[in-house]
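INFO  loader      accepted 1 record
INFO  loader      residues=281
INFO  predictor   begin
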Amino acid sequence: MAPSSSLRFLSPAQVNFFQENGFLVLEKLISAEACDRLSRRAAELIAQKKDEFDKAVFSTRDQEKTSNDWFLESGDKIRLFMEEEKNPNTTRHRVNKIGHAMHDLDPEFAAFSRQAPLADIAHDIGLQDPVLMQSMYIFKQPFIGGEVRVHQDSTFLFTEPLSCVGFWIAIQDATVENGCLFALPGGQKEPLRERFQRDEKGGTALVKLEASPLPETGYVPLEAPRGTLVLLHGNLPHFSEANRSGVPREAYAVHVVERSADYPASNWLQRGNELALRGFA
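INFO  predictor   done
INFO  writer      dumping tokens
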């Protein structure tokens, strides 16, 4: 992923920082009004889909809970996934996230996902013809927002050659207290450790590619005020801790891959032929 020679949005220093560190934090990229619109639309989707409560629990600690048909058939749908934990201290819903094709199926999310600055940033870091593969509206609910273990996004969106990039946007302030991202500077230079893929039995398997585990130390918090974009290289090790505070943390993430890269049929996330992959245009 070589940086572009003609930049549209980022400065040379910002491109160099991303290339060296594997992440880039851009504050005030998205307006407060746009964040509010997306948050309201997410609430509307939840209200429309209350019959989906408890169809599936999302967990990065127990892959068995994310290997059912509800999860595996969500690549071209909009579905709800619940938190594992319940807590009487909160009256909020228990939705962990909405996924995984809002960027194609919902007009509000589609427009948000394809705004010009995101396309320009993709160009500046060297993506040639990126397609939007996956979207997630992520909740870190007060008191019960689950942790996300250390991982590399290419584990879940594997291509040959590797090409995954995440566009993670803070819809509400993300702090150390309510579960902001932590990332390992320069960690994108680490080899990919695992692949999360479909198995022969119709479920999923986490396949080891490297015997050594990801580093356990050296991670830095990426606190992000509302409207901040955090750009994440697909090989970058990162995680977020559980939200034990009383403050919610909502975020929206879109992951892109190169259209020209091979996207194996064994990848967990698939979509039917009736929903074609689209880029930023």
